Amino acid sequence: MIGRLNHVAIAVRDLSVASEVYRSTLGAQVSAPEALPEHGVTVVFITLPNTKIELLEPLGSDSPIAKFLEKNPDGGIHHICYEVADIGAARDQLVSKGARVLGSGEPKIGAHGKPVLFLHPKDFLGALVELEQA
Ligand SMILES: CC[C@@H](C(=O)O)C(=O)SCCNC(=O)CCNC(=O)[C@H](O)C(C)(C)COP(=O)(O)OP(=O)(O)OC[C@H]1O[C@@H](n2cnc3c(N)ncnc32)[C@H](O)[C@@H]1OP(=O)(O)O
Ligand SMILES: [Co+2]
């Protein structure tokens, strides 16, 4: 069911400091910050030849990233995102196998303008999984 690795997301306290690590130390091109209030994050992307890295800073105190940083003060890997061909079909198949879809269960539009869903980390070996319709 799952396809390409779309991105790996890292939770950070300060997007400008984190962006500089990727820009100056790793020599990567970093996109301009984009605020996504519906997701409670401000995001930048680093596009690599085979995937993307998403740096996430909390936007608002009820952001999922704020809660993650309370438990993980240094930040760190927050989720991995896989592409699926049909997100509704993928959701229905996963739910029939007992996986928990987070939130309302309806896809939201993510950072790339495509429908996304999140799956509970306890059902996927302790890693939060995002699905994005390719
Ligand atoms: C930029 C937009 C978009 C894109 O297009 O790419 C994004 O990526 S937005 C990214 C931010 N959005 C989300 O994270 C939405 C989905 N997340 C959630 O619904 C919640 O964060 C959560 C995963 C359900 C956790 O919330 P909550 O239950 O309130 O927090 P707890 O701290 O109580 O966690 C319960 C349990 O799960 C463990 N946990 C939490 N987050 C993660 C994580 N990122 N990776 C692995 N495990 C995680 C947490 O440690 C708790 O475990 P126990 O302490 O053992 O109970
Ligand atoms: Co993501």
From TrEMBL:
Q: Could you confirm whether the keyword Zinc-finger appears in this record? A: no
SUPFAM superfamilies of this UniProt entry? Glyoxalase/Bleomycin resistance protein/Dihydroxybiphenyl dioxygenase
EC no.?
5.1.99.1
Please give one Gene Ontology molecular function term for this protein: methylmalonyl-CoA epimerase activity
Q: Is Plastid there in the keyword field? A: no
Q: What class of enzyme is it?
A: isomerase
Identify the keywords attached in UniProt to this record, alphabetized: Isomerase, Metal-binding
Record domain VOC: where: 4-134
What CDD domains would the database entry show? MMCE
For this protein, the record's Pfam families field holds:
Glyoxalase_4
Family the UniProt entry places it in: Belongs to the methylmalonyl-CoA epimerase family.
**Name recorded for this polypeptide:** Methylmalonyl-CoA epimerase
